[in-house]
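Now for one protein, fold included:
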Amino acid sequence: MKPAIFIDTSYFLALVNSRDKYHQAAKIVATQVKPPFVTSSAVLFELGNALAKPPHRALGVQALQQIRADTGIEIVPIAPDLFTQAITFYQSRPDKAWGLTDCSSFVIMQQRGLREALTADKHFEQAGFKRLLYLELA
C-alpha cells in the first residue's frame, strides 16, 4: 500500500476557488494523485474559516461536506494529546513563522511517516516535507 498524502488547507482552497493563484495547478495535481489521503480537523477549521463570509459560506459548507464524505480522506481529530504535541512543536521552533495548524500537521505527518503534502505552503518544505503544489504546474 502506498503511503498517504497529507492535504493542507491551501490545496482545498485552491481547488474550490477558481480565482486562487494555485487553482489550475491544483486541478492538474488532482488528476495525478490517488488516495489514501490524510488531513485534520484543524485543516478543516481553517478551510471553514477562510470561506466563512456570506458570499462564500455555501461553498465552504459544500466543500466540508464533500471532504467529510470522501472515504479516501482520513480526517485526524485534534485530540488533547495531539494538541499538546502540536503546542510543544510550535514552542520548539521560535525561529519559524509556522502556525499551530501547520505544527499539528507536521506532528501528524511525522507520526505516520508521511513525506508528501498537497499544499502550496512553503512551511512544509521548511519542516522537511515535500510539497506537491507549485505555480509552475499550471
